[in-house]
Amino acid sequence: MKNPLRTLTRAALLTLLLSLTVIAQEQDKPTPDRWRGLVLNESTPEDAIRILGQPQSDKLSDLPVRRINNWITKTRKEKVFKRLKFNKPEGMDAVELYFLSDKLVMIQLDTKDLKPNSLSGVYGIEFRPMVSGADEGWEPKDFERNQGRVYPKTYPTVYHMVAVAEKSFICAMIGNSSFGSVLRKGAKIGDSEGDYPGGVMFLQLISRKLENRDGADALK
Asked: Are 45 and 53 in contact (CB under 8 A)?
C-alpha cells in the first residue's frame, strides 16, 4: 500500500521544481527595461564596466532617439548624457549605454539576426510600425487602416517599430533590404497583421522617466 504522505511529499517537490523552472525561464527572458543585468533607472556606469569591461569610448552626448522624439523630454537635445560604447559584446555588433545623473536611461543594442516579426514574442508586448500623422497626411495613398490602426502599404528601405512598456519605450530600426525596397517600392505587408519585412538593425530601450510630461501639472 502506498504511503499517502510520501506521495504528497513527492507531489509537493515536483510542484516546487516546476515553479523554480518557470521562475528561471522568466529570469532568462528578455525584458523591456534591462539587458544582461543592466537595469534602466538603476544601473550606474560602474555597473556597466563591471559587467562589460572597459568601454571603447566614454563621452558626453545627446540622446539619439529618432521616430519617438515627441514622446521624450527636451533634455534629449542637450549633451548631458554620459555615453559608454562597447564594441562587439557577445551576440552584438555594438552596445551604447546612456546615463543621466549616473543612472542608466537608454540602452542601444546593435543586433544580429533578429527579425521584426519576433519582437512582440521576445518582449511580450506589442510592436507596431511608427507612422506619424504628418506622414499619413502628406501621402494618404501610401497607408491603409486595419482595425483602426495605420500601416504602410509598402515598406521603405528603413523604417521604425515601437512598443510601450510599463517602465520603458522600445524603438527598433528596421533595415529592409528587399529588392523592392531598393526600387523605392518596399515590401508589401502580408495578409496577417504583424508580417513585417527586413531585419532589426538596432534596438533602443529608453526609460519612461524621460517621457515628455509638459503641461501635466495642470491636469492634477
From this structure: no
